[in-house]
Specification:
The model has no long low-confidence stretch (mean pLDDT 93). The chain has 5 helices and 11 strands, in the order αααβαβββββββαβββ. The protein has helices spanning 4-16, 20-36, 38-42, 59-67, 141-146, and strands spanning 45-47, 71-78, 83-88, 97-99, 105-107, 120-123, 127-129, 134-135, 155-159, 164-165, 180-183. The chain starts with a helix and ends with a strand. Strands 3-2-1-6-9-11 form a 6-stranded mixed β-sheet. A 3-stranded mixed β-sheet has the order 8-7-10, with helices on one face. The chain is 27% helix and 23% strand. By secondary structure, it is an alpha/beta fold. A hairpin with a 4-residue loop joins β7 (127-129) and β8.
């Protein structure tokens, strides 16, 4: 059984080795699955992550959600407090973003949104299992955030098929289980 750090390194290496075309094609398939979910259809406010180049891409999902008149929220990181602050996304232009913590895009204009106002949370990860457990990057931002949102807010992970394992070992008590993992 691989340790958490070794599994993180292995998954990150695998993610970064994939071709751009393959990432985009599978991301479109995952988007179709997400948009068919009852939780997505009913949501007025959806929290997406802003994807790194090698992750399941969320930009077209965000664009389409905005066209469907949904409010889109994205995470911003408060490094001092080691927490995620969900902020309203008002635009998708290059000037609407800045590099935040860990060189991840964040909205230039921060307009915090109350956690209870979010109807669906789309979550990234390096690995997932069939029970909804998730392996993040190791800093614990998402687990701390997800632990503070109301239980009735659906949490959905997005992954490529090879990121979904039968069972993640070494789950910690603070790890928050997701309601569903969509993959292609």
């Amino acid at each position: 059984m691989l340790g958490r750090q070794r599994l993180r390194a292995m998954m990150l290496e695998k993610l970064k080795s994939k071709r751009r075309g393959e990432i985009e094609e599978k991301s479109r398939k995952i988007q179709e699955k997400l948009f068919k979910l009852k939780a997505f259809k009913q949501a007025k406010t959806v929290m997406f992550y802003l994807a790194q180049a090698y992750e399941v891409q969320t930009r077209s999902m965000i664009e389409e959600a905005l066209k469907k008149r949904k409010k889109v929220v994205v995470p911003t990181c408060d490094i001092k407090a080691k927490k995620i602050i969900p902020c309203l996304l008002e635009g998708l232009g290059a000037g609407d973003f800045k590099k935040g913590a860990y060189r991840i895009d964040e909205p230039r204009c921060r307009k915090p949104v109350a956690k209870g106002d979010i109807d669906l949370i789309v979550v990234p990860g390096l690995a997932f299992d069939t029970q909804g457990n998730r392996l993040g990057r190791g800093a614990g931002y998402y687990d701390r955030f997800l632990d503070t949102v109301p239980d009735d807010i659906p949490k959905v992970g997005l992954a490529f098929r090879y990121q979904v394992l039968k069972r993640l070992s070494h789950c910690q008590p603070h790890d928050v289980r997701l309601d569903k993992v969509l993959f292609a």
